[in-house]
Amino acid sequence: MFATGMKDVLPDIEGISEVYGTSAFVCPFCDGWGLRDRQISVIAPNDSNLHYVKMISGWTKRLTVLTNASLLTDEQHAEINIHGISLVEESIQ
Length: 93
What we know:
Layout: H1 16-19, H2 28-32, E1 40-43, H3 47-56, E2 63-66, H4 74-82, E3 86-88
Parallel strand pairs: 1-2, 2-3
């Protein structure tokens, strides 16, 4: 069975379309498991993306959240720290 009518929406980051499908992916369930035990960075500028981070935090000990300059709440910082996840809040270049 195939899904039709779906279109991946990439973040507005220069150069991301050139690496999409090779080192940048949209769906952690489709592509993330194959990267387990490796360095995984997740662009997570909002709560729904942070939800994915919590779900895949057991896949690797080398997980980094990139907020692309979105500011996280104190509660979000605490939750990321509890899981030992690295955090980068600067703009992605």
